[in-house]
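Supplementary Text 2. Reproducibility record for the structural model of the 550-residue chain.

All settings were left at their defaults, and a single model was retained for analysis rather than an ensemble. We include the record here because the model underlies the residue-level annotations in Supplementary Table 4.
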Amino acid sequence: MKAFERGKRSHQSSYKLLKNQGLPLLCSQKTMLIPNASKWCLEELVKFINCKEEREQKVIPIFYHVDPSEVRNQREIYKIAFSRHEKNADEEKRGKIRRWKTAMREAGKLAGYDVKVDSYESEIIQDIIKEICGTIPMVLDVDEKIVGMDSRLEKLVSRLEIQSNGVRMVGVGGLGGIGKTTIITALYNKISNQFRSTSFLTNVREESTKDSGLLKFQQQLLDDTLGVKGQLTLKKIHEGVKEIKDKLSSKKVLVFVDDIDDSRRLEHLVGKHSWFGHGIKALQFFCSYAFRQCLPGKGYGDLSIQVVRYADRLPLALKVLGSLLFRKGVKDWKSELKKLQEVPNMEITNVLKISYDGLDHTQKMIFLDFACFFKGAHVEIVTQVLDGSGFKAESGINALVDRCLITISTNKKIEMHDSLAQMDKEIVYKECPNESGERSRLWKHEDVCRVLTINTKIEGMLLNDQCTSEHEIKFTFEAFKRMTRLRVLIVNNNQVQLFEDFTFPSHDLTYLYWAGYSLASLPSNFHANSLVFLYLKDNNIKRLSERKLE
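Retained model, structure tokens:
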């Protein structure tokens, strides 16, 4: 980075340029890391990268006689130079060095110009100039000699609140000839460099009366803001309205519409506040999970916008999908997008199931157990129970947390969004919609009562005190003898009647919670070798068993 000489005055001028012009150029070369001369360069580098991430400014790196991978991975001379900086550094300086390294790593990831020793530098310079000219907003011709121009411009700028994430629509009205066009043209010149996407539509009133006039303005608006001239062709005005709403809702844009006197024409161009802004917030929220920053990674901009659109900007869906796509490549993103496009409707459970489908078998089993039995339970107890079932609980739980399918509260309780729990229960239900005894887990009173009379493949069963019945529920030998896969049994209901021949045939039982157990002892064949959690409340037990527990 040698665009400026070192020194306080140059430092201030470069930072001012960085903030106001919106197109920093980074020139990385090996001499920038000479310990006695590089601190200023590295501090400037941090500012450039911060502006890229916080202000969405475009940054063009120039790798002068240095391989971009050396910058990105900090090998060779970079590794040696940072080691020298770290020598005898206190904690404050080490924190500063970490920021330098992060900024250099991010700069090395950016697409730019690789100037090798044998490169034709004059040609590369011309390419850089062309890119800059194509990026910097045009400067419009304006007569700035109007009295009071500066004060009026300041009022307009303050009303726009450019630094906020909100949507601002400001109108300038008045009699013809008082300088409205001049004022907004000067305003455009003043603030357009703070936006990546701009468009200035002129003579709208006159041109809109001509054939396809309004359609041409829609086309110009999209061409200007998206940079897709010749790639997108509109044929109908309603097509233009849809494209503007879809394409610009997630972009920070500056649009000027000059000389318009018909609100209907204005609506076809910029519509309502709801066309803009909310997409930006949804995109930033999604990116905070997909990239751990507020903006999409390089090459992921359009893909991110598509995900946000297909997820219908639902916060939970954005959170789950963002976590699912974190650290995945473009190929995986496109694959997940294809799945989203195939969702028959955009109901939240249909979108969320894409993340569930990406889990392995063990993770799915744990997730279903949480939704059906352990929502709100202490994670350490549940971890032991799951380990007892051979589920490798820690890695499975970490995977669910990473994907934002569950959270662990400060008091170590398992928490899950109601929509996710409902989705899981729907998955269990669809295992066999017509026969509850063929499902792996039961939590509804009527389903539990039904399976007590039939053959069953139940792995887990919940009967709580919220279930009411006019009759007692009978747990018999015949009802339980076929439940050989039972892992979890939760009974919190005082209407359960037990018979003396009651048995637990399963060797896999890891979790037994029973409030109101009515027999004097546990069954003689009770298998405790896999048991992790045993809770017997308000029971009639006089002895644990007729014989020694296995």
